[in-house]
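Summarise this fold before class:
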Amino acid sequence: MLQNPVEFFRELPKKICAECGQIIVEQAESYLMECDRCLSKRAE
């Protein structure tokens, strides 16, 4: 049985930052593995 695509994406687990473990709030089709805070630390 095929699952509704909206339900499929809604049920995906939250993405977690590889550095600090914080949940990443992302835009569609984002491939980042770190949150904005950790990325800004790296740029310094």
